[in-house]
Structures are given as structure tokens and as C-alpha cells.
TrEMBL record:
It holds the Pfam family PrmA. This is Class I SAM-dependent methyltransferase. InterPro entries: DNA_methylase_N6_adenine_CS (IPR002052), N5-glutamine_MTase (IPR050320), SAM-dependent_MTases_sf (IPR029063). GO terms for biological process: methylation. The keyword Ubl conjugation does not apply. Residues 11-22 have a biased composition (Basic and acidic residues). Gene3D superfamilies: Vaccinia Virus protein VP39. SUPFAM superfamilies: S-adenosyl-L-methionine-dependent methyltransferases. PANTHER family: HEMK METHYLTRANSFERASE, MTRF1L RELEASE FACTOR GLUTAMINE METHYLTRANSFERASE. GO terms for molecular function: methyltransferase activity. The keyword Methyltransferase applies.
Length: 383
């Protein structure tokens, strides 16, 4: 999963190099300078904006504070137009989305310019550095040589490690799901609640497919609701490992089978469930693939293949937010067209308004779309 290349820099007049790691898929920076506790935030921000990376040799906690200072500068609102100048034209929802994504990408590149050295055992050889071995091992696997990675990425690894240990409380399940680094965490519970409330179709107690299982949360929920056998599929190795671990923790090994597949397993089922990425846009990093799906490829693939894997009187449950429609990235007509082209019909739809914090955040760049967003469980059947 990790992009590995070689980072080159000059230190104390000597040419040096080390393995480069980036879960975000970023190439190693071409320009690298040495930075330490004497480096000011303004200097660091200027260098980062210019594309010059800083390999840190000072105190770890000071580096963490410097990263926070860089983030504050990156997030500083732009100045309003001066009096007399024509006001800026308000962008369309689609334009606002692309500007937001562009700003996110630029911010990520800027903050990734603060680099840390790592020993081959994943420890950071800096004063006051925490024990990073377990968090790095979970994301990177074994290392056979020292390497360099960004501090921002390390903090993400540490945060994911804590979530993996603690788990995410799933009220509908009455238990916790433990997400792995790089696997979409079920922190938005509205789609889970829809699956918990929807009436199971006739025959679903015998078998169900969970397509793109991720953490395995929906497969576990179906098993808890009495489905005797659930086949959960995914292509991502981390998702397969994560789902298998969660199913084992929940004691559902006898009911749930986690298997690698491109969307569907072999055969047909009375119930087929899928929660594809909701936004048809290019991900900025591999980690974003659970949210962003270029040209709605997974959604189209599910709708095109569902009829071949559904029992004649079975149901396909498509869990989908309409955020893309409010952003002008997909139309309702297009979605209905793909359903019809797949030889399917709509039996009904359950809806819920999202309750995540961004839906009520009026300062968010996409607030208008988020505040109108609805998540639906589409009940589909063969025409």
C-alpha cells in the first residue's frame, strides 16, 4: 500500500539518502533542507509552500507544535476584496466542490513537507518522541532499513492506531467495530441505522451478500438480525483483514464468510447489500478511495451486475447519499437510468438526514449541499 522510493538530501556537507514512505502516494520531495528547534514557523511555511521539505532533527514535540503552526497558516481565511473592487462571483456548487478539493490537496502537500527520520524498527530517533512501532507496523508492515516519512502521516497513523484499539461504538450492533488504517471507519451511523430498520425480504434469513464490506459492520449487523449466512466481499487487503478481525471479535465466524472478490461472489442471494463510495470524483490519495469513486465505477458495477446475483424475488439494498446530486456531480436521472439499464426496478426507499457535525457547520465550504443531503436505502428488485 505504501509508496516506497528513495529520498535524497545533503547534510553536513554529505550526500545522504533513505527509503521514502508515503501512504498518500506522494513522491519523495526533490528539495530537502535540515530543520530543527531554531526553525521559525514563518520560515517553515514559506519553504513548505515553495515545495521544499524539511527533515527534522530537533525535539519531536516541537516538531508537532510546528506542524500545528503550519496548519493555522494554511487554514487562514483569504482576505476579502478591497473596497471599490468588484465582489467575487459566488461559485456554483460544483465549482465550490472542486475548489474545496483543490484547497484540500494543496493543504495536504504543504503540511506533508515536515519530515521525520525513522529507524528500521519504526522508532523515531528524536528527543521526546513517542513509541511509534505498533502504529507504523500496522500501516507499513515490517521495515528492513531506516526510512523517512512525513510527520502529518505519522500523526494519522497514530490516530488510526488508537481508533483500532478503542473501536467505534455501533448502537445498532450493540458492540464496537475496530477500523484499520486505510479502511473507512463507520463513524457516520445513518446508513447503518437504515440497514437495522429495513424489513428483511422473504428468504433473506438464509443468505445475504455484503458487497464492499470494509470493516464488516453491515455483514455483522445482518448476521445479528438473524441471517444465517453472510458472504462479505472486498478487494482491498486491509479491508479483508479488518473485516475478518471484526467478525472474529464479534464471535460471528460461523455466520459470516469474508472473501476477496471484485464486487460479487459466485451465485445468487435473496438479499444483496452495497454501500459504495458516494462521491464520483478522483481521490487525492489511496486512503480516500472509500469516499471518492471516479465516474461512479463501483456504483455502476453494482447496478449492472446485481440482477445476475439476485434471487428472482430477492432485494438489493443500495445505500447511497445524494450529496453528489446537490454538488452537481451526478443527477437523479442518471442514477435511475443505471437502475433501469441493469434490469432493475425500485420497490421503495428509506431515507434519513445525516447528523454529522459538518451538516450543521455554516462555515464549511460545502454547507449548502451538506445541509440538504439525504442518505437513502434503495430497495431494488429484478424487473
Amino acid at each position: 500500500m505504501t509508496t516506497q522510493a528513495t529520498l535524497h538530501w545533503t547534510e553536513n556537507g554529505e550526500e545522504r539518502s533513505a527509503d521514502w514512505r508515503s501512504e498518500a502516494g506522494m513522491p519523495p520531495p526533490k528539495r530537502v533542507v535540515i530543520a530543527d528547534d531554531t526553525t521559525s514557523a514563518d520560515t517553515a511555511y514559506r519553504l513548505a509552500c515553495e515545495g521544499t521539505a524539511m527533515l527534522w532533527r530537533g525535539d519531536f514535540q516541537n516538531a508537532r507544535q510546528l506542524l500545528q503552526a503550519l496548519a493555522r497558516r494554511a487554514d487562514k481565511p483569504k482576505k476579502a476584496p478591497k473596497a471599490g473592487k468588484a465582489p467575487l462571483v459566488k461559485p456554483t456548487p460544483t465549482e465550490a466542490f472542486h475548489l474545496h478539493r483543490q484547497a484540500q490537496s494543496q493543504r495536504a502537500r504543504t503540511l506533508a513537507m515536515l519530515l521525520l527520520p525513522f529507524d528500521a524498527d519504526h522508532l523515531v530517533p528524536l528527543r521526546r518522541a513517542p513509541d511509534t512501532r505498533e502504529a507504523c507496523l500496522e500501516a507499513y508492515g515490517e521495515a528492513d532499513a531506516p526510512y523517512v516519512a512525513s510527520m502529518r502521516e505519522l500523526l494519522g497513523l497514530i490516530g488510526a492506531h488508537e481508533w483500532r484499539k478503542k473501536g467505534v461504538e455501533i448502537p445498532a450492533l450493540g458492540d464496537r467495530i475496530h477500523p484499520y488504517y486505510g479502511v473507512f471507519s463507520p463513524v457516520r451511523g445513518e446508513y447503518i441505522d437504515l440497514v437495522a430498520k429495513a424489513q428483511l425480504p422473504a428468504g433473506a434469513a438464509s443468505l445475504a451478500f455484503d458487497i464492499g464490506t470494509g470493516t464488516g459492520v453491515l455483514a455483522a449487523l445482518l448476521a445479528q438480525r438473524g441471517v444465517k449466512r453472510v458472504i462479505a466481499t472486498d478487494q482491498d487487503p486491509r479491508a479483508l483483514a479488518c473485516a475478518s478481525d471484526n467478525i472474529r471479535r464479534l464471535g460471528m465466524d460461523d455466520q459470516v464468510e469474508v472473501t476477496e472478490a471484485d464486487l460479487f461472489p459466485a451465485g445468487r442471494a435473496p438479499l444483496v447489500v452495497c454501500n459504495p463510495p458516494w462521491v464520483p470524483a478522483r481521490p487525492n490519495s489511496p486512503i480516500e478511495r472509500a469516499v471518492y469513486d471516479p465516474d461512479s465505477q463501483m456504483l455502476k458495477g453494482f447496478l449492472a451486475g446485481l440482477a445476475e446475483h439476485l434471487e428472482p424475488k430477492g432485494e438489493g439494498w443500495l445505500l447511497l447519499s445524494d450529496l453528489a446530486e446537490h454538488l452537481g456531480l451526478r443527477t437523479r436521472e442518471a442514477l435511475l437510468g443505471w437502475i433501469e439499464e441493469g434490469g432493475l426496478k425500485v420497490l421503495g426507499r428509506l431515507e434519513v438526514k445525516p447528523h454529522h457535525p459538518k451538516a450543521a457547520d455554516q462555515t464549511d465550504a460545502l454547507h449548502a449541499a451538506r445541509s440538504a443531503e439525504v442518505t437513502s436505502l434503495w430497495r431494488l428488485a429484478i424487473r
